[in-house]
């Protein structure tokens, strides 16, 4: 009985075409999946790199961190709600734990962005943005091991070390170069560093929380709806009582739109990447935001990159490139092997007679 059933599974597995063609088709699909995940994470970093310099430019003209938080989340939640209504997505949590995680995502995002945007006032914005990255890589690795049982691969750890070295050099450069007029003493510079590190810690917790929600079957639409609606409400309430400037000149308004689009595109692409690649790899791949961030900072604010910035960018390139190679070429072979072994479990012949009773 068992033998006949196994033969049927074997025939079902290989009856549609040549096994070699099926294997090549599987390899191609796995390659596309990894390639799309890596591409999404890299693109997310490039888009996110537009945010620091543009938002600092607008802050210099009277906008507050609460306003930037409010407008960036309002843009995204408007699109997400339209998608949810069009697809008739069920937004009711199925469990208390899921609801708690969704609320944490929204409240955490509000405070993370508040700390980060406030840090832009005390450090060169691109440097403030990259200061959080060493902590993010370490925090995400620790938290994903504790809560997701997701161990970083050796190549991911190798690339992450290079990224840590790179962003550390860039952070040091931010401490030594001439800083804006708003940072008149070292105490304010230290405050900017502290705010950036706190933002990195909160962001790492949110990244791991997102990965856990996606793994448990929560849709991206539900995560985005709760996270950005809660953050938008909190930021809107704070903006009402703290902001005095609302109308900007045309140039500043255009710069603000560019920053908001960068924030929007980077966030959406991050959610796509987290669904396809390991959370530690996604975090490291997004370090490419320093390239667009420093270029734009130089162009519109006038902060010239130092030699430490150059060495830091080189280290980040080495780390990111090594992770890209692993995710796009090596990990697909491992996944192919795992899937093939799972298929073989259906065609194994029982070796013990008692197995027929099961």
From TrEMBL:
It comes from the Eukaryota. InterPro entries: EamA_dom, EmrE-like. PANTHER family: ACYL-MALONYL CONDENSING ENZYME-RELATED, SOLUTE CARRIER FAMILY 35 MEMBER G2-RELATED. Residues 36-171 form the EamA domain. SUPFAM superfamilies: Multidrug resistance efflux transporter EmrE. Gene3D superfamilies: 1.10.3730.20. It comes from Branchiostoma belcheri (Amphioxus). The chain crosses the membrane at residues 32-53, 65-87, 99-119, 131-148, 155-174, 189-210, 222-241, 253-272, 284-304, 310-330. This is Solute carrier family 35 member G2-like. One of its GO terms (cellular component) is membrane. Keywords: Membrane, Transmembrane, Transmembrane helix. The gene is LOC109479301.
């Amino acid at each position: 009985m068992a033998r006949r059933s196994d033969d049927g599974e074997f025939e079902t597995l290989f009856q549609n075409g040549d096994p070699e063609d099926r294997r090549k088709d599987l390899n191609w699909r796995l390659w596309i999946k990894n390639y799309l995940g890596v591409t999404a994470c890299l693109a997310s970093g490039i888009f996110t790199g537009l945010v620091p310099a543009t938002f600092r430019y607008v802050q210099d003209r009277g906008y507050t961190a609460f306003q930037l938080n409010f407008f960036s989340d309002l843009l995204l939640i408007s699109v997400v709600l339209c998608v949810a209504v069009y697809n008739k997505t069920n937004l009711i949590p199925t469990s208390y734990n899921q609801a708690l995680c969704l609320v944490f995502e929204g409240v955490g995002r509000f405070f993370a962005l508040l700390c980060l945007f406030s840090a832009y006032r005390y450090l060169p914005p691109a440097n403030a943005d990259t200061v959080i990255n060493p902590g993010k890589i370490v925090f995400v690795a620790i938290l994903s091991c504790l809560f997701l049982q997701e161990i970083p691969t050796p190549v991911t750890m190798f690339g992450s070390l290079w990224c840590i070295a790179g962003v550390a050099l860039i952070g040091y450069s931010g401490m030594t170069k001439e800083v804006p007029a708003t940072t008149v003493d070292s105490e304010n510079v230290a405050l900017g560093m502290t705010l950036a590190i706190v933002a990195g810690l909160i962001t790492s917790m949110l990244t791991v929380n997102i990965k856990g929600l996606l793994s448990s079957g929560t849709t991206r639409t539900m995560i985005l709806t709760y996270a950005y609606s809660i953050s938008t409400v909190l930021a809107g309430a704070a903006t009402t009582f703290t902001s005095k400037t609302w109308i900007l000149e045309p140039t500043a308004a255009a710069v603000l739109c560019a920053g908001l689009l960068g924030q929007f595109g980077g966030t959406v692409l991050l959610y796509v990447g987290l669904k396809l690649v390991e959370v530690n790899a996604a975090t490291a791949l997004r370090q490419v935001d320093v390239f667009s961030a420093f270029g734009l900072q130089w162009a519109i604010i006038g902060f010239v990159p130092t030699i430490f910035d150059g060495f830091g960018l080189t280290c980040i390139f080495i780390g990111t490139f090594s992770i890209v190679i692993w995710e796009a070429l090596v990990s697909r072979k491992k996944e192919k092997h795992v899937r093939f072994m799972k298929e073989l479990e259906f065609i194994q012949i029982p070796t013990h007679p008692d197995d027929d009773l099961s």
